[in-house]
Backbone:
C-alpha cells in the first residue's frame, strides 16, 4: 500500500508542480512556476507579473474552502483521517491547476 501511495503522491505532485501555462507576453507554453520566460526573457518576479490578479485570489479562497470542507467531511466518515487529508490536498491542487489554466487561456487570447 505504501508503494502505491508514494507513486500516487509523486504523480499528483508532479502534475501540479509541472503545470504548463502560456506566457502573458510571448504566448509560448512555459511552466506555471517559472520565474523567467525562457523564450522572451520576461522576469515574472517584477511588477506586474509578481502579483496574483484579484479573481485568482478569490478563486483560490473558494477552492480552499471547498477542499477543506470535503476533507473534513471525509474525516467524519468511517475511513482513516489520512484519506480526508489527501483528498483535501488533491482537490486544492486540482483547483490550483484549473486557476492557472484559466489564466493561461486568458493570457493566450489577450492582445
Residues:
Amino acid at each position: 500500500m505504501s508503494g502505491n501511495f508514494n507513486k500516487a503522491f509523486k504523480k499528483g505532485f508532479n502534475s501540479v508542480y509541472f503545470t504548463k501555462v502560456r506566457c502573458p507576453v510571448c504566448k509560448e507554453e512555459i511552466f506555471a512556476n517559472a520565474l523567467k520566460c525562457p523564450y522572451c526573457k520576461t522576469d515574472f518576479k517584477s511588477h506586474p507579473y509578481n502579483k496574483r490578479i484579484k479573481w485568482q485570489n478569490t478563486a483560490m479562497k473558494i477552492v480552499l474552502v471547498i477542499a477543506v470542507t470535503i476533507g473534513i467531511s471525509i474525516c467524519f466518515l468511517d475511513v482513516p483521517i489520512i484519506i480526508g487529508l489527501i483528498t483535501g490536498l488533491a482537490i486544492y491542487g486540482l483547483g490550483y491547476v484549473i486557476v492557472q489554466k484559466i489564466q493561461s487561456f486568458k493570457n493566450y487570447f489577450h492582445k
Observations:
- The beta strands are 20-22, 29-31.
- The CA atoms of residues 3 and 81 lie 19 Å apart.
- The first strand starts at residue 20 and ends at 22.
